[in-house]
Amino acid sequence: MRISANPLRGQQFPAVLLLVAAGLGLLLANLPTHDAVAAVLDFHIAVPGTGLDLSIAHWVSDGLLAVFFFVVAIELRHELTHGELDSPRKALQPAIAAAGGVLVPIAVYLLIAGGEATVLGWPIPTATDIAFALGVLAMFGRGLPSSVRVFLLALAILDDIIGIIFIAVLFAHDVQWLLLALAVVAVVAFALLSRITNPKVRPLIVLAMIVIGIIAWGLVAASGIHATIAGVLLGLVMAPAPAERTRHALEPLVNGAILPVFALVAAFVVIPALAPAELSPAFWAIVVALPVGKIVGITLFGWVGMSFRPKGTPPALPFGDLLAAGALGGIGFTVSLLLANLAFASDASIRDQAILGVLVGSLLALVISAVLVSLRARAYRRLAAAAS
């Protein structure tokens, strides 16, 4: 297999870049630079002739992140049609594990922060950051069988689908159905244009698709549905061949710029000068639900799922491998940060503490998963050495 020389197409470097960007955002928010950076992020840019008037922070979370979700949707569609989830038989085991990785963190969150002021944050700890999880696996998992990566990939993809559904359903507001219908028309036009294969008109087709894609994004944003859903719709309907070329072209941009910029902006929160007992229950719920809830949910439900393997499915993963995958699933980060911003958009204090909870919980999961993955990989390397 040919390995790309571009580190932005790998798994390790983008994960490190995300972590550095989040740390930088947190640092800038808690130094004398806070007011200057906050003024930049709060600066509004309007699009003449439209109702779009967003701050730079919202252009990042609603605009740039739509490109990330566009790439995610292309990968999702591939996995659902030709990849790890292209049949119910393949999807059953990771689907059961993914259900545990959603239900148990929700239960943990509600147990700790089920009060009226914080209950809306229950979707936050349900996400798995596939880039981070695969990056940690690549860094510390030398010697692990490929079945662990396949299981984790399928699990994270299902988590992405659940996260997208949460964003689309839970955080819509005052939906303008006419604008949404026009957005659907634009998405259909985008899909049809992507299927024109005449090379003579390809440059014009690409230009038209970019324009229509931007129009679809604007219509979705104005309709009351979160704008990132436009990226999802466009990625799902694009013809497979041009979609794969586009994903390949956008991958370095997404990994090297879009996700780090989002991480920096999302992590730009002031650490509250509060005693631990004074912190919001949302903070503690996320800190516990991401590493603990995910490990327990994915491991236990995954173990149950392995017990009901249909005939012809791959061999069951050992319990230790399930435990390592569960720990990796606790790295919520990108989608969890977005969900924290959406869930507590009307309460800046709780929102900032929820974001801190995502950063702390994801960091704990990262450390725990690095240890567990390293131990499992070492065990497999010893077995391989003994057998040779």
Short description:
Na(+)/H(+) antiporter that extrudes sodium in exchange for external protons. Helix content is 73%, strand content 2%.
The amount of helix comes to over 70%
Low-confidence stretches: none
Which architecture of the largest domain would the CATH scheme give at its second level? Up-down Bundle
Instruction: Spell out the CATH superfamily of the largest domain.
Output: Na+/H+ antiporter like domain
Keywords: Antiport, Cell membrane, Ion transport, Membrane, Sodium, Sodium transport, Transmembrane, Transmembrane helix, Transport
Catalytic activity: Na(+)(in) + 2 H(+)(out) = Na(+)(out) + 2 H(+)(in)
Membrane topology: Multi-pass membrane protein
Family: Belongs to the NhaA Na(+)/H(+) (TC 2.A.33) antiporter family.
Fold and architecture overview:
The structure is a single chain. The protein is an all-alpha fold and 388 residues long. It folds into two domains: 17-171 and 226-382, Na+/H+ antiporter like domain (Na+/H+ antiporter like fold, Up-down Bundle); 173-225. The protein is 73% helix and 2% strand. It contains 14 helices and two strands. The protein has helices at 12-29, 34-42, 56-82, 88-113, 130-140, 146-170, 177-194, 202-223, 228-237, 240-266, 281-307, 319-329, 333-343, 348-387; strands spanning 44-46, 53-55. The chain has a two-stranded antiparallel ribbon. Helix 1 (12-29) runs parallel beside helix 10 (240-266) and helix 4 runs antiparallel to helix 11. The longest helix is centred in the C-terminal third of the chain and has 40 residues, at 348-387. It is globular. The chain starts with 11 loop residues before the first helix and ends with a helix. The mean pLDDT is 89. Keywords: Antiport, Cell membrane, Ion transport, Membrane, Sodium, Sodium transport, Transmembrane, Transmembrane helix, Transport. It is a multi-pass membrane protein.
